[in-house]
Amino acid sequence: MKKIAIIGSGNIGLSLAKGLVKTNFAKAENIILTRRNLAQLASYASEGYKTTVDNHQAVAEADIVILAVLPQQLNAVLDEIKSAIVDEKHLIISVISGVSCAEIKSKLNKNIEVIRAMPNTAIAIGQSMTCIATDGASAENLNHVTKMFETVGLVSKIQEDLMTSATALCACGVAFFLRAIRAASQGGVEIGFHADEALKMAIQTAKGTADLLFINQTHPETEIDKVTSPKGCTIAGLNEMEHNGFSSSLIKGIKLSALKAGNLYTKEG
């Protein structure tokens, strides 16, 4: 059983750890969690996970290293663990936005396999959309990482040059869809529902709609056509939203987020 070190055990790292254990992909005692404030990992330690503030030691004990720190913290962490990395032993998985496989290898000065993964916050309930990419990792390791992240949702393999785009669409996208649901619930209040009723209705409508596309494997426009009738209320509402830039605003927001995601990491420091 391979040992896994999660460097920077915040929401994403802890959710992945729980998913790996829940699906019997790994045992808690084979997962090492690191965090600067060890008290925040106390409950995990009681469940059998190994916890430490020592990133170097965690890497030395592990076979798979998951980098889950903030982009601004990455260089310091790589300097800290560099001497513990062994090319033939370790596989590096990075969930850090805007940092290429090549940049991680260069900073470590190692000829090591690196795979990038971009999950989103729905990982907390096992419903993440995770995109993975590499610049040369083996098919065996790529398959292993795919299975790891399938414990917490769906996985799509993409080209590495699309990873910042995946960040905008899938990771930032959670906030975009939440804002749309929030706006729908506010519209519900405007037309007479109490806030809690409107939010419940908006959430279930959004969830049902997503499931409709996923289960039927249809295009959104196909389902839109089913609910729009000539001179009806749905097409009137859609056209009003489009006149006010609904689709174009969402597209522009995704494009801007992708641009921002590509600039979160700097090589200095």
From TrEMBL:
<dbReference type="GO" id="GO:0005737">
    <property type="term" value="C:cytoplasm"/>
</dbReference>
<comment type="pathway">
    <text>Amino-acid biosynthesis; L-proline biosynthesis; L-proline from L-glutamate 5-semialdehyde: step 1/1.</text>
</comment>
<dbReference type="InterPro" id="IPR028939">
    <property type="entry name" value="P5C_Rdtase_cat_N"/>
</dbReference>
<dbReference type="Pfam" id="PF14748">
    <property type="entry name" value="P5CR_dimer"/>
</dbReference>
<keyword id="KW-0963">Cytoplasm</keyword>
<protein>
    <recommendedName>
        <fullName>Pyrroline-5-carboxylate reductase</fullName>
        <ecNumber>1.5.1.2</ecNumber>
    </recommendedName>
</protein>
<comment type="similarity">
    <text>Belongs to the pyrroline-5-carboxylate reductase family.</text>
</comment>
<dbReference type="InterPro" id="IPR000304">
    <property type="entry name" value="Pyrroline-COOH_reductase"/>
</dbReference>
<feature type="binding site">
    <location>
        <begin position="68"/>
        <end position="71"/>
    </location>
    <ligand>
        <name>NADP(+)</name>
    </ligand>
</feature>
<keyword id="KW-0641">Proline biosynthesis</keyword>
<feature type="domain" description="Pyrroline-5-carboxylate reductase dimerisation">
    <location>
        <begin position="160"/>
        <end position="261"/>
    </location>
</feature>
<comment type="function">
    <text>Catalyzes the reduction of 1-pyrroline-5-carboxylate (PCA) to L-proline.</text>
</comment>
<dbReference type="GO" id="GO:0055129">
    <property type="term" value="P:L-proline biosynthetic process"/>
</dbReference>
<dbReference type="GO" id="GO:0004735">
    <property type="term" value="F:pyrroline-5-carboxylate reductase activity"/>
</dbReference>
<keyword id="KW-0560">Oxidoreductase</keyword>
<dbReference type="InterPro" id="IPR008927">
    <property type="entry name" value="6-PGluconate_DH-like_C_sf"/>
</dbReference>
<keyword id="KW-0028">Amino-acid biosynthesis</keyword>
<dbReference type="InterPro" id="IPR029036">
    <property type="entry name" value="P5CR_dimer"/>
</dbReference>
<dbReference type="InterPro" id="IPR036291">
    <property type="entry name" value="NAD(P)-bd_dom_sf"/>
</dbReference>
<keyword id="KW-0521">NADP</keyword>
<dbReference type="Pfam" id="PF03807">
    <property type="entry name" value="F420_oxidored"/>
</dbReference>
<feature type="binding site">
    <location>
        <position position="55"/>
    </location>
    <ligand>
        <name>NADPH</name>
    </ligand>
</feature>
<feature type="domain" description="Pyrroline-5-carboxylate reductase catalytic N-terminal">
    <location>
        <begin position="3"/>
        <end position="97"/>
    </location>
</feature>
